[in-house]
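Morning!

As promised:
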Amino acid sequence: MADIINEMNLNFLSRSYNESFARATVAAFVSQLDPTIDELSDIKTAISEAVTNSIVHAYKNGIGMIYISSKLYSNGRTIIKIRDKGCGIENVNQAMEPLFTTGGSERSGLGFAVMQSFMDKIKVVSKPGKGTTVTLEKYIIRRSVGNGR
Amino acid sequence: MAVRISSNDGVMTVFLEGDIDHHTAKEMRETIDLNVNKSNPNLLNIDFEKIQFMDSSGIGLIMGRYKLMNSIGGKIKIINIPNRLEKMIKLSGLIQLGIFE
């Protein structure tokens, strides 16, 4: 069992400006695992998709809080949870189908497909009326053992 | 301003800069559509060379402009896609449209 080497929580309002704030902040936190540029870019993209979902769908009728928590493990395992208290998803399987969108013609419907393909694991738990938690996981390949602890 | 536009003889070229996400895509979309609707170009080039980061909002932006150009009987080309964006473009399936150069 790998040890937790660091942990953080980040809470912010569902303002669209915070899409870039959230991905940059999580990327800065994950950087201590010494990821490659590609690994970091994958994580930033997945965070951006999850946070955008909370802003566009979960809180479509207003503004609410988005809660991100992240844990880093000594073996490079990186867990990032993105949680909202928005409207929830009626049918998670349908929402996760590529190209399914309720967001109108400017939304590609690729959000979950991107999270699935850019991360190693994704779990979505949602309760209508209560909110949604997306858990993303990625292994950062350890190249320099002992660095950044 | 993250959008620069040059227009010449029915060809409009849009140079995008910075990150494309749901927040920034809105302004890019509005600026492009305003100019396209003003001058009805035959060809719209969108240059991605200076895009540092793009999530699936960039795919939505391309799809929407593809539809817009179709609706006025024009063509669209997406030019200078950097390597860092290729994973997203491939995942989107948009390559089938034949609009990438």
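Chain A touches chain B through 25 residues (CB under 8 Å).

Hope this helps with the figure draft.
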